[in-house]
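Protocol step 4 of 6: record predicted structures for both targets in the notebook before any analysis. Target 1:
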Amino acid sequence: MPAPIRLRELIRTIRTARTQAEEREMIQKECAAIRSSFREEDNTYRCRNVAKLLYMHMLGYPAHFGQLECLKLIASQKFTDKRIGYLGAMLLLDERQDVHLLMTNCIKNDLNHSTQYVQGLALCTLGCMGSSEMCRDLAGEVEKLLKTSNSYLRKKAALCAVHVIRKVPELMEMFLPATKNLLSEKNHGVLHTSVVLLTEMCERSPDMLLHFRKVWLLVPQLVRILKNLIMSGYSPEHDVSGISDPFLQVRILRLLRILGRSDDDSSEAMNDILAQVATNTETSKNVGNAILYETVLTIMDIKSESGLRVLAINILGRFLLNNDKNIRYVALTSLLKTVQTDHNAVQRHRSTIVDCLKDLDVSIKRRAMELSFALVNGNNIRGMMKELLYFLDSCDPEFKADCASGVFLAAEKYAPSKRWHIDTIMRVLTTAGSYVRDDSVPNLIQLITNSVEMHAYTVQRLYKALLDDISQQPLVQVSSWCIGEYGDLLVSGQCEEEEPIQVTEDEVLDVLEGLLVSNLSTPVTRGYSLTAIMKLSTRFSSVNRIKKVVSIYGSSIDVELQQRAVEYNALFKKYDHMRSALLERMPIMEKTASNGPTEIVQTNGETEPSVPDTKLPPLITQPANQANDLLDLLGGNDVVPVIQTTLPTKPASAGGELLDLLGDLSLSGGPAPAPSVPISQPPFLLDGLSSQPLFNDISAAIPPMTAYNKNGLKIEFTFERANPNPNIAVITIHATNTTEADMTEFVFQAAVPKTFQLQLLSPSSNIVPALNQGSVTQVIRVLNPQKQQLRMRVKLTYTHKGSPVQDLAEVNNFPPQSWQ
């Protein structure tokens, strides 16, 4: 058989291929020749064939059929064969193939070989692809080589030990004695690998970290090595751009960072050397910048002195002036991490950070924007907002959403005045309205509503913005809402903050009608506009024109718009006497958490959950006197309504079925102030119980009771005590029916005094079966922090034999164990 071509000739031939298909054909032809050679057990050219196979593997072609040939080369006595064999094993084998286990004995023999280069090959292979079984079998040989005096083997053994520790962490203590003298080695390669090994041991074992800190006193040794590197003269062997062995310096700084984290003594011992590195390192080359960056990270991560932290932040500030984009990005990212702990030091570089907003690089601009928002406070809010709004005007669309959200949050937190706050939000809506979050509209509406003295100014500004541009839908929605609420102030020209404009009622209605027919308006915007026109029927004299507009949309193809128009038409016709009360101006809205977990607010020394507002364009508001009647359940002002987690199965009536427990009774005492009834309620403040056992053993001591027994309907209460809060009583109602007909549309409602909090969960059914053939269960949770006697008023609604039945009852005979 002729001799196969050499590797160099194969490479030259493959490079002459003009197409991928031609290259593939050459590779397949050569692979066929190599396979034939392998089948004939050709030992003469096995090394050459495996080398060519490895080159094909690097090009992305399959070479798995050469795995066993690599093992044969490893078993050879020739160094050239072993070198190619071990290289092939590292490239073609890993611990997922069982073939690699056949190498264990060969590697063990080579680790004890008389030639250091053969030992080095075995160490490299074990450190690259050794499985956990191989590492267990060969850890002893690695540990022996770690103690040898040969620096060439020691550095390779240290890196191999790192791999062994990663695969089998419990073998870590085996290498502890051998690592003790590694840092006294003069060879930089051994020092470097030793620091890597010590870093791995510290990261994987807190006990080992404590041992290195307290027993070995590792920090002073590392400080000495680092000081020698800084103070040593020129050494051509280790010099890189005028800096002595920067790779070793970086590794030592990382290990110091781990040792000094959350440890006062270690941090104190390294403060001086860190200051020395920070001040003496040359920054004209990238090598020096790499060392300075690691120094900054170490200073920020340990318990360093305040002066040292300021020095580190000043280094990052100098990085911001560097021409290299990567260095500027690294500086911005690092400053963003430290701004919360060293806010004042970072503030000194505010102008440089703001200049980065004008950078052409997208990544730098994003980091600069995030850092700029983190630097905003009450003292610089005006200047920073000016820069950020300028950035919002000119930035790419991908930044506008995040920038607008950041401006909203910063303005809400640090606004110097309500007028400035409103002007800023309107500026954002004008320039980037299409990119703002969905909750921006209700948040701005709430801000405007609560700024009573700014109503005339705001509606005038929004009206002007609406005349200029109707493409920004959030701006149009806010403007429509404000014109509907405060249109009378716009027409009367009562604005004191700026020169009032002269607007007629017809001009305002023309603008709103234009929004209804505009192709730019979304269905939500049309809903805002129609509601605004309806509200103006109580503020303007052009009622007939408004009636005509509303009636037109009663046949709209948009179902939402049609429903609103039909309801508004009904107000004009059947309920015109109630229209002025229903469309009166919205009251001041209480500020609550708009998203995230329920915010806890203080009320009379007790913590209660505040209910997030669901802000929607108001259709019909509850008259104040009706709301008072519905809420005054127990004859006074101390009543809290039930919080239901789901909507009742029966549709709510216009009077508010949920709260209408005493609609027909004459009530004594002054009416309670009417709270706004939220559209949806958040999860109850006690919902965290699900992660723990719901009830404890005390429940067995609370006897059940009959709360209601009338007309064949019997309601029984059983009691449990919630865990972990003993102030919560969990009451389960059991409704049974002794009559011959089912009770359908069954609804149980309850109310308690204001000193309690009550949550009514969903019932198991809305049908109570006849003849006691089943029961309806429902769970009530009552929070009683003051341990007062429990009182409850219940309302029962159901249909029996085709006739609706409604009854009220008061339950005052609760067992003392249920509330004590």
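Target 2:
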Amino acid sequence: MTDSKYFTTTKKGEIYELKADLNSDKKEKKKEAVKKVIASMTVGKDVSSLFPDVVNCMQTDNLELKKLVYLYLMNYAKSQPDMAIMAVNTFVKDCEDTNPLIRALAVRTMGCIRVDKITAYLCDPLRKCLKDEDPYVQKTAAVCVAKLYDINPQLVEDQGFIDQLRDLLTASNPMVVANAVAALSEINDASPSGTTLFDLNAQTINKLLTALNECTEWGQIFILDSLSNYTPKDDREAQSICERVTPRLAHANAAVVLSAVKVLMKFMEMMPVDSEYLTTLTRKLAPPLVTLLSAEPEVQYVALRNINLIVQKRPEILKQEMKVFFVKYNDPIYVKLEKLDIMIRLAAQGNIAQVLAELKEYATEVDVDFVRKSVRAIGRCAIKIEQSAERCVSTLLDLIQTKVNYVVQEAIVVIKDIFRKYPNKYESIIATLCENLDTLDEPEARASMIWIIGEYAERIDNADELLESFLEGFHDENTQVQLQLLTAIVKLFLKRPTDTQELVQQVLSLATQDSDNPDLRDRGYIYWRLLSTDPAAAKDVVLANKPLISEETDLIEPTLLDELICYIGSLASVYHKPPSAFVEGRNATRRVLPTRAPGSGSTSPESETAAAVVPQAPQVIPQASQGQSDLIGDLLGMDLGPPASAPSAFGGAPAGFGAAPAGFGAAPAGFGASPAGFGASPAGFGGAPMQAQPEMSAGLDLLGGGLDSLIGGGGMSQPAPQPMMGGGNMGALGDIFSLASGPGLATGMYVEPKTVWLPAAKGKGLEISGTFARLQGQVFMGMTITKPLPFLYTVSVIRCGCQQLRARAWRSAAPSPVCRAKSSWKRPSLNRNLSFILSLSSGVAASS
């Protein structure tokens, strides 16, 4: 009769019947009662009230009954710790039983009962079992040490159990060795110090390799993981270990195979690159990895994630196995995508024909996500293999002719990348792309098409009409499309300035006036400023040569890849992240691949010579030699002196660009003013012009005529310039880098954050905040006035005692693009900011 009858009872008052049966004198009745108790416990019934009666059943010679009682104890001991003490004497007695199965069962159960009161009684029985003559008891006790360490690490260290585990590494039984290695590995991973608990030497390694052939598959995994942490002393020892590990590649368990691959991949790093054994080992690694792909999908996925790492490290291992990674119709999507990624990594000039044929076939599948990835894979192949780029482009054009919407859009996205990789080579297909302009509805595809039109505007006769069609629904577009459209129209204007003035003014107005997106607004202001002040510089910036893109962008960083190779077969190799990234409390010890010994043939003579030369540490700020100009001026290209023929800051565009479009004849208010970062303000004051640098303002007045022209006042007298180090170019950045002389250097460059001097609540809406700093021998006061309602700003000379303070002011609110340099200070605004820089002579205290 089966045991299903124990799970079908629904009688009331069953607990009382079980209690009576558990105290029965008949062994069979007692055994049946315990089985019923375990069945009730399994289905979730609370039978903890029977604890004393079940414990009384421990005193039996029947092994089956004892196992059932121990199972009950493991489940309820934590909720009944006081009553669990009753079983301690029986545990101690069972640990000295003549039957090794009972001894092992007792020590295993005590290790599983996570109760501190019982843990104290576990030490003596555990110590005896670790020295037991029976290997089954020893291997069970070894695992029990790891469980005890999880409960009370200090107790394990104080009782010397770790030393006893080290002694078990030399045991004659392979299962004892494997369990000792497993326990030490678990303890080592859980140890907060991260120190290695057992040293692997040649003798220990030989013992582990001997046990490797005879222990269970899970024991083999622990031994192989420990071997991977060993660093051989030379390539001969590494080769010897690899020869003994290689037979594990034929194991039926995928975990054993991956652990063996991990050991071999690590030790291959120590072998000379021209070694014949290395070539042989490379050939041997391919078949077991291919075999893993015939397992169920979940195992396939784990294998493919590991193969992805292996292919990035050593693509030669699987370069002849491309067909194994071809997608099957019934593969799950996660397996398909991994296979696709590995196919691209293995693609080369020799196999690109069959790869492209396969990818083209995938592009006709019904799974939209997979089709998109397949089309992108064709583009990645074109970028990776230059000789086959034309064939890839031809394949993409064939796919565009299918007129399938999502295929066309993905093809346009990847063709943009191909244009970046191979400029001025495949532009003849632009006309074909423009035919599909109306079908584009995805932001990335629309942005890519706009980029292509803007980049090659001089070759597209109706480029302005195409871009204007996108401009009609500008505010409804995705931010990615808006940014790309703004840049494309500016490119078009710089290439064809005569007939695109209205278009560029329209897009700049939309970007700066009507947009709430800060990225779009900032880019619009930057373009406006560039075009209004120096179109030649704008052309150099916007139409600069783009860096060529590379297929290496999706590769794992080499240092991380080396670390992940050391974790093949674990969760880290599936996530492609180190364990510390997803395991809390993981010790920070990083695993790294061993390095080849010098002269092992791993490097060329030139590279060895280069490695022998110790490079000098680069200077952060190298000293300028005689005859050289100032370093800061050279690095930043800041020629603050008056240019020979500088156009007015608000004047028209230089020759070659035609007349500046409407709106650029006079820069809008705020573009004339110097924003922070233009080299005209001391640090911390948000862009206020420094009075201590008259030579700068003489050459380039960033206020576009100065404050006086705006408020109608007379010219202010300028204080005498302070002497500068390094010439005139030093003035703008001398304070920033502490390179200027003067008494201000004694106090350092720290500027306190602004504090609110007059809160808006007390000032009837007017808020004043500011700070003081000493720069270049002068005391500066930075002040911001914020008023939520329109009012007239007046700026006058402020006197402090007998000292005169000179003030310049400007609005920090973003200007409207339609304003001119003569904009009224009374222009309505929801929020007005007025910022001051007050320059005090050095004799005035900061508190003034």
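Step 5 preliminary note on target 2. Residues 598-749, 789-848 have pLDDT under 50 and may be disordered. The longest helix spans residues 135-151.
Proceed to step 6 after PI sign-off.
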